[in-house]
Amino acid sequence: MVPPPPTNKPHVCLSTILIMSSMALIDAYLVEQNHGPRKIGICIMVMVGDICFLIVLRYVAVWVGAEVRTAKRGYAMILWFLYIFVLEIKVYFVYQNYKADRKSLDALARKALTLLLSICIPVLFVVLVAIDHMEYVRAFKKREEIRNRLFWVVVDLLDILDIQANLWEPQKKGLPLWAEGLMFFYCYILLLVLPCVSLSEISMQGINIVPHKMLLYPILSLVTINIITLFIRGGNMILYRDARVSGILIGKNILAIILKTCSFVQYRRQLQNASPAFGVELQKNSVNGGVNPGVVHVNIHDPQDAGRAQRTHLISTGT
Description:
By secondary structure, the protein is an all-alpha fold. The protein has 2 domains: about 10-270, no CATH class; about 290-319. The chain is about 75% helix and about 0% strand. The radius of gyration is 25 Å and the shape is flat.
């Protein structure tokens, strides 16, 4: 096995502490929900599971810390997938225990579980992205645009967790069993996949990050979060008279649909206007298929990079 490059130790320690502390708190919920001899058995099971998880985390976190200053986020995707996969399984058992014991109306503990997830999961995503360590993104404007896009990812994560939290927070009338299971596992899949898509967009572009070309995540989130969750909340509010549906997040989804649609239309217009003009410029540079020694031939898809290359050529030729 190839030894990992030098790691960012503070980054490794921060991500490990965040992951293991959130796991330990969910384990505390599982242990406290059981009584008698079963409580001891659950305690042993979660301890063994956490030790095995810590062994795997020891190797994955080192590689995540090694790639934090690079353009790659492959191991960050693996760590995110592993963390959410294990954490949500534990959350599922906590939710089922609350559902089985409907007499337990400890609203404070249930809301504390929601608060725990809404803090740990988005913070871990921000740590794995590590935008402040992206030294290869030199332009301040590009870095701020990436930070704004990641802010939307964090808001989407909170949107998903809000829907999932409706399952274990106290409610007067429960949803049908099939609806509860469908909602939980739909949110489970979104938490697994969508942040990995955002990390892969950063990784695939390498050091030449062009934020306005990172369109895969906005398209997926528009469909899977802003549109579908709007129907989920509307159905809960209309069909089941669920008073806990967040009107603020419904407004967020409507606003996001409008903003993202306008952004897609604007980007497509800019792409159509820029491509023909730059294509004519490239055709003028080629004469009968030969190469003019005084002309720089480039293949650039970004209009800003095209203008930069043209200015560099004018300076070098003294014109």
